[in-house]
Amino acid sequence: MYPEPQPTPKRWPLSPKQTWLLIGGIVAVIIIIVVALLIGGSKSPESADNQAMYHDRAGYDRSKLSDAVADPFAVTFTKNANAVDYKGNKVIQACNLLSVDEITKQDLLIKANTAPTPISRTFNDSVGKGDYNQKIYTSSLSGSSLGKDMNNCHYVLEADEGVPAIDINVFQPFSVPSDVVAEEIQDNYTATGTVEELAVYTKKDSVTIGGDDITEYIVMQQGTGAFYLSLNLGNDNASKEQALLETAAKNFLREQTNPTGVSKLAYDSPIFPKSIVRACDLITNEHIRSLSGKDAGPLVREGIASSIAKIQFNTQDDQTPYLNVSNECTRGTTGGGSGLGSDGAGDLNLKAEVVSFLEDTPAKYSVDLQRQKNPNNRDSVDTPTKIGDGSVGYTDA
Question: According to the 3-state scheme, what is the secondary structure of 277-345?
Fold first, then answer.
């Protein structure tokens, strides 16, 4: 935990030609860690009064939270009226079928977590110019693991035990062939009635995780598409499944008639009064094409923290607590990042992780830490060109 001084950084060991050969491999995964300084002021938070670093929320028990959680639930989403158009088709975004507000209205809490994991979404933001991956297998239509390859929304819920979660996948004919959805229903689901006049199919074989039953549905409107809904609410909240199913069905019909865009991510907390930098804004289609020779796929995957984090840089001899928000994004040639149905050589995924601070001191510390020998760093090198106010390249252990 106390890093030793790093020897003089080595020069980049590859020639330009070798570098491009490396990039052109079968699957190249490049991780960029970007430390973002928020625009608008460099005043330090009220670190002298440690209590000013915390903000409590109804329903979240402070005694059960990590000391690193400064505000357990600060994330917000605002509706976006501008729907994404894909070759004349309006895209229905999965998270628009069940919003955070609609989940919390059922007295369900989003997991308090400072890492960008409790909420994730795979969506079409019209940046990637590639086509949808049509090599979809029926065995992949159900389950949260599909979120990297399909229009998906994933929420992790707060609980004393287990990891309850909600997953939504949207199937539109231009992205997932209708016959693939039909085959999945025929093989693994059974008709169980209707909701909002839409046909409901429930998975035949129930799944149990951590002692909690998971209910999986596919809801279909013939000719226009369908959606998958997985509800693992914990057995104590099983009675809320029907309300969530009905809400998702209503929103599915609304989105077909009046589609909306990707909801706008922000944070609303009295202890973090500035905007964040979104990782997905840092990776464009041009970046992917320049590295791989291919357009980025239409889907991009975003990981979202629900909480404001508090961090101290003890190895820098600074006991000051600093607040931050984490966000990550993966964009690549294969869609949302996992490579399902990849056609081989030249595929590439580029991942950006952003930590947004209120001032520049902790941002400098974060970069300086990677210049030192530490458990996450096998080797570090100076970046070939100056990036921002400071930068370092390193090999992740």
Answer: CCHHHHCCHHHHHHHHCCCCCCEEEEEECCCEEEEEEHHHCEEEEEEEEEEEEEEECCECCCCCCCCCC
